[in-house]
Specification:
The protein is mostly helical and 255 residues long.
């Protein structure tokens, strides 16, 4: 179970019952004060934003790596068609990803509500505690003593039992998260278009575009490594080699 979901269970179970928007600290538990100011992760957790950016970059690379023949045959006209196709495809997938994000948020909250209802309807208090344990033991099992763990789960059961049921609907934060998700996918395709606007030689512009995208893969790996225990340079180089391998394979095959 993702850490962010587990922390949201704890937050909602231990809160007084009023409806609150999920804070950035809940989504990124070890965030610094500077991180909380970042718009990028105000509504999306780092793993989600990473997935959106990588999806946009890889989708764009899929087009540019296979566009060599079209560029060679049609020149600037082919480059223009390529740009339209790349941006159009990423816009379409951005919309799809935004919709899937909303569905995922509703599903996540609905699952938590189902757990809450099961706790309230439990015939025996021990059964309710067991439900909490099944959700939180993978995360907290080794951090607390058995007595501390039992006391925590007992408190959660008491708080859940007192909380009133509420409707699961799309919130303002959900819409904003969907918008951020959409723009991450779309914006990640923009750097690939810049070489075609600045360089007359369409085939050379295509190569430059591929280099830009690969560099962005390195930067993405380097930047997001700070949310893990990985070394930024190692993560960046790993992404870089993956992108380079794709380019080499495409050029070797005449792409």
């Amino acid at each position: 179970m993702p850490l962010g979901n587990t922390l949201r269970i704890l937050d909602r179970a231990m809160s007084s019952g009023e409806r609150q928007s999920p804070s950035f600290a809940q989504k990124v538990p070890f965030a610094t004060a500077a991180d909380r100011m970042a718009v990028l992760h105000r509504y999306l957790d780092p793993s989600t934003s990473l997935a959106e950016i990588l999806f946009g970059l890889i989708m764009t690379l899929t087009f540019t790596l296979g566009a060599g023949l079209m560029i060679e045959d049609e020149g600037k006209a082919g480059a223009r068609e390529l740009l339209i196709a790349v941006i159009g495809c990423n816009v379409a997938w951005g919309i799809i990803d935004a919709a899937l994000y909303l569905v995922g948020q509703l599903f996540d909250r609905g699952r938590l509500q189902r757990i809450g209802l099961a706790i309230k309807r439990a015939t025996h208090r021990a059964d309710a505690v067991t439900l909490i344990a099944e959700e939180l033991n993978p995360l907290l099992g080794g951090l607390l003593s058995p007595r501390e763990t039992e006391a925590l789960y007992e408190r959660i059961v008491d708080n859940v039992a007192r909380k009133a049921e509420r409707r699961n609907s799309i919130t303002r934060e959900d819409w904003l998260g969907a918008v951020v998700s959409f723009f991450l996918v779309v914006i990640s395709s923009i750097p690939a278009a810049i070489p075609f606007l600045l360089i007359d030689d369409a085939r050379f512009a295509l190569r430059v575009s591929n280099v830009v995208l690969i560099a962005l893969l390195f930067f993405t790996g380097y930047w997001w490594a700070r949310y893990t225990v990985s070394r930024p340079w190692i993560a960046g180089v790993a992404f870089l080699f993956i992108g380079s391998a794709l380019v080499v394979a495409a050029i070797a095959l005449g792409g």
